[in-house]
């Protein structure tokens, strides 16, 4: 958010992983400031009961205290304090204050910022400094937000673990020997660890929803196309979107209103009359037993609050959606990333990126096969059929939203190295391919362009969070968020 950077040049610094020292998340010496929501902190700053400088200083100290989680790639405390000082002066001078005035927000490091480099989590772009902010960053700045830092991610957003060979793995703040999920792992980690009240991520095939679920925070993948994508490192235009992380639905609603340039979604106070579809097959296949138990308890909580649960399968979804996202990504990534480099990182080529790419991302730079174009056309047609399937499903059963687990297991261990260990993930004693373990339940909404709101639903006996995802029809983001207020009240665990 360049306009808040001040006159001093801002230089990014890498926060590398340090020795693991898992501990309870708590406000510590900063008291209750770390527990403030965006809405609460903004209200206090606007009335003068809290200064932006006091709030920023509390968050900076927490970032430094939890630096071993490795949530950030770019972080400049001096610049944050300077921006907060300017925010306090603006209030003292009677200037018009936006809804996010003085609130430091973290931004995933594949979203352009002029004040800090945009690395994409890859070695070749480590010094890449775009000339201007992405449109979504500019909207946050216009609302008064401050740039807290740039968050770590799975390299170029091309994975679900945030095990980054260049900048180190993002550690789950609930259990630091576990992954945070990806690709927006640093953003989810920073929110969960109280380093920031909110953050931006991106979601192509689950990259907001997976880390939100594994770290125990709220996350929104909006309908595809709801937010502008100019200035964001692309993967697949037919799937990509920016989205917010926060610790409550009220903050998701506020951030959505700023990013979409609309009025905030109104809160729905109860779930009476809300028809929630529960597809028993596909989404519930192969669940870890602890995840299954938490999901069943979540359903009971929703029903207790008056929701009408409709158990009906999405017949044919598994066949229709199989391989669609992968085909779209493979074709579009090879065409869109060079276009981004030409505009925002001139002189940098795909060959340069491939040469410095980590071992779990370098296969993405393999030339598409000759039949990639034909496969892409087939995938686009399949995408239309998946959209039609969800539309007919919701019409047939008069559904308002759909609910399902985000991933079938709690956060897996990080492992010994930066590359996810083959052949995959162990769930209920079975080895499951990574794309199935992480991608299966999140891919349908991405392909169909549906909004997805993730809320914490509980935790395993080991304290690992489990999240559930609610989907509404494409373009019905306000309804989804409004219903999310009541669902949050029904589900909210003490994490």
List the helices and strands and how they pair.
Elements: H1 38-47, H2 52-65, E1 72-74, H3 77-92, E2 104-108, H4 135-142, E3 146-151, H5 185-192, E4 198-203, H6 209-215, E5 218-221, E6 241-246, H7 249-260, E7 275-278, H8 289-304, E8 308-311, H9 317-321, H10 324-344, H11 350-356, H12 372-396, E9 401-405, E10 424-427, E11 430-433, H13 434-439, H14 443-448, E12 452-459, E13 465-471, H15 477-491
Parallel strand pairs: 2-3, 2-4, 7-8, 7-9
Antiparallel strand pairs: 1-3, 4-6, 5-6, 5-12, 9-13, 10-11, 12-13
Helix pairs in contact: 2-3, 7-15, 10-12
Pfam family, one: Amidase
Biased composition (Basic and acidic residues): 1-12
Keywords: Hydrolase
Please describe what this structure looks like.
The protein is an alpha/beta fold and about 500 residues long. The chain has a single domain, classed as Amidase signature (AS) domain (Amidase signature (AS) enzymes, Alpha-Beta Complex). The protein is about 35% helix and about 15% strand. It is built from 15 helices and 13 strands. It has helices spanning about 40-45, 50-65, 75-90, 135-140, 185-190, 210-215, 250-260, 290-305, 315-320, 325-345, 350-355, 370-395, 435-440, 445-450, 475-490; strands at about 70-75, 105-110, 145-150, 200-205, 220, 240-245, 275-280, 310, 400-405, 425, 430-435, 450-460, 465-470. The strands form two sheets. An eleven-stranded mixed beta sheet has the order 1-3-2-4-6-5-12-13-9-7-8, with helices on both faces. It has a two-stranded antiparallel ribbon with strand order 10-11. Helix 7 packs antiparallel against helix 15. The longest helix is centred in the C-terminal third of the chain and has 25 residues, at about 370-395. Mean pLDDT is about 90; it is low at about 1-30.
């Amino acid at each position: 958010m360049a306009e808040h950077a001040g006159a001093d040049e801002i230089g990014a610094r890498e926060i590398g992983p340090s020795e693991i020292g898992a501990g309870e998340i708590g406000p510590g010496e900063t008291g209750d400031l770390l527990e403030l929501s965006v809405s609460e902190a903004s209200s206090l700053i606007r009335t003068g009961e809290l200064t932006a400088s006091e709030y920023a200083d509390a968050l900076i100290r927490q970032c430094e205290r939890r630096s071993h989680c490795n949530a950030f790639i770019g972080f400049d405390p001096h610049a944050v304090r300077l921006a907060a000082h300017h925010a306090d002066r603006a209030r003292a001078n009677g200037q018009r204050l936006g809804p996010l005035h003085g609130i430091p927000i973290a931004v995933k490091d594949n979203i352009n910022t002029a004040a800090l480099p945009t690395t994409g989590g890859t070695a070749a772009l480590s010094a890449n400094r775009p000339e201007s902010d992405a449109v979504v960053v500019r909207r946050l700045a216009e609302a008064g937000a401050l740039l807290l830092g740039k968050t770590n991610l799975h390299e170029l957003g091309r994975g679900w673990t945030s095990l980054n060979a260049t900048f180190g793995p993002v550690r789950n703040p609930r259990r630091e020997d576990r992954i945070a999920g990806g690709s927006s792992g640093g953003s989810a980690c920073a929110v969960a660890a109280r380093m920031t009240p909110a953050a931006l991520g991106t979601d192509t095939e689950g990259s907001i929803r997976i880390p939100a679920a594994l770290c125990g925070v709220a996350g929104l993948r909006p309908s595809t196309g709801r937010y502008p994508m100019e200035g964001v490192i692309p993967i697949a235009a037919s799937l990509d979107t920016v989205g917010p992380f926060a610790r409550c639905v009220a903050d998701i609603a506020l951030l959505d209103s700023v990013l979409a340039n609309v009025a905030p979604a109104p809160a729905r106070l109860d779930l009476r009359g809300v028809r929630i579809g529960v597809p028993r097959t596909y989404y519930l296949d192969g669940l870890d037993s602890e995840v299954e138990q938490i999901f069943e308890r979540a359903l009971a909580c929703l029903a207790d609050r008056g929701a009408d649960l409709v158990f009906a399968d999405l017949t044919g979804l598994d066949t229709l959606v199989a391989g669609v996202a992968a085909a779209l990504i493979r074709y579009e990534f090879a065409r869109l990333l060079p276009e981004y480099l030409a505009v925002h990182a001139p002189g940098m080529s795909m060959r340069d990126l491939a040469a410095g790419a980590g071992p779990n991302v370098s296969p993405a730079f393999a030339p598409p096969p000759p039949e990639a174009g034909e496969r892409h056309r087939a995938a686009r047609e399949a995408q239309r059929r998946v959209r039609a399937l969800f539309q007919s499903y919701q019409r047939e059963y008069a559904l308002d939203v759909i609910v399902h687990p985000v991933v079938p297991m709690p956060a897996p261990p990080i492992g010994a190295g930066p590359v996810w260990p083959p052949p995959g993930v162990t769930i209920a004693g079975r080895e499951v391919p990574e794309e199935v373990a992480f991608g299966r339940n999140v891919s349908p909404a991405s392909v169909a362009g549906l909004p997805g709101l993730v809320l914490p639903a509980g935790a395993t006996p080991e304290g690992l969070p489990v999240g559930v995802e609610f989907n509404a029809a494409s373009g019905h983001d306000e309804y989804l968020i409004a219903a999310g207020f009541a669902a949050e009240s029904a589900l909210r665990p003490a994490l």
